[in-house]
Amino acid sequence: MMPPQNGQPQGQPQPQPDPMQVLFQQAQHIQMQAQQQVQQLEQTTTIDQVVKFLRDERTRSFAIEIETDSTIMPDEAAEKQSRNEFLGAFSQASAGVQQLLQLGPSGAELAGGLLKFALAPYRVGRQLDGLIEQFTQQAPQIVRQQMQSQQQGQDPALAQAQQQLAQAEQQKAQAQMQKVQADAQLAAAKLQLDQQKASAEAQQRQQSLQMEADRMQTEYQQAQADLAETLARIEHVRAETQTLIANAQTARQTADNDSVRAISEVGQVQFEQDQALMQPVVINDQTA
C-alpha cells in the first residue's frame, strides 16, 4: 500500500471549490476582458490626433505612411463611451443577481436570464456573448452541486425549510420580473399610443394645412377671374366712351358745317337782295 501523499489521509474526499466563488471568478473574467478592450481603444490613435498631426507645420517635411485600416476607423470616443456604459450595466446586473444565485438552480437560471436581458441592448457587448451564454448555462449546475454538497449532513427539516425559503424568494423574484416586464409593456404601449396620437395629430394638421392651401388657391383663382372680368368691363366702358366722344365730335363737326352753310346761304340771300335794291327803277310812260 502506498503511503498517503501530502499528508492527505486515504479515503478522505478532496475539497471541492466553492461554486459561488467559481461564478464570481467567471463574472470577474468577463469584466476583465471588457476592460481590456476599453484599454485597447484608449491606446488607439484617434482621428482627431491624426488631423492635429497633419495640421502641424513642423511635420510638413516628414514622410507619412497611412495604413489602410486608419481610413475606416470608427468613432473611438463613442465606442469607449458605449463600452463604459456596458461595464456599468454589467456591474449593476452582476450585483443584482447575486441573491438569485442563492435560491437554487431555478434562481441561477433566472439570474442568467436577467443578466442576458440586461446586457442585450448593448451592441458593444456582443463579443462577450459566448462567455455570458456559458456562464448562464453553467450557473444552474454549479448551484445544484453546491446545494447537494450543503444538504449532505444537514438536518432534513432545516433543508426543507431552506428549500421552501428559496422557493419563496424565487417566486418573489419571478413576481418582480413579471412586474418589470409588465411595466415595460405598459411603457411600450403608452409610447406606441403617444406615437399614434402624434401621428394622427400631424396628419390632421397636414390635412388642415392642405385644406387651407386649397381654399387660398381657390380664392386666388376667383380673384384672378374677378380681376379679369373687371378689366374687361373697364375696357368695354373705355371703348364705348371713345365711341361716344368720336360720335360727339362728328356731330359737332356736322353742326358746325351746317351752321357755316346756313350763314353762307343767308349771306348770299342778303347779298342778292342788296344787289336788287341797288339797280335803277325804269318807268315806262305810255300815252294812251
UniProtKB/TrEMBL annotation:
<protein>
    <submittedName>
        <fullName>Uncharacterized protein</fullName>
    </submittedName>
</protein>
<feature type="coiled-coil region">
    <location>
        <begin position="158"/>
        <end position="240"/>
    </location>
</feature>
<feature type="compositionally biased region" description="Low complexity">
    <location>
        <begin position="1"/>
        <end position="11"/>
    </location>
</feature>
<feature type="region of interest" description="Disordered">
    <location>
        <begin position="1"/>
        <end position="20"/>
    </location>
</feature>
<keyword id="KW-0175">Coiled coil</keyword>
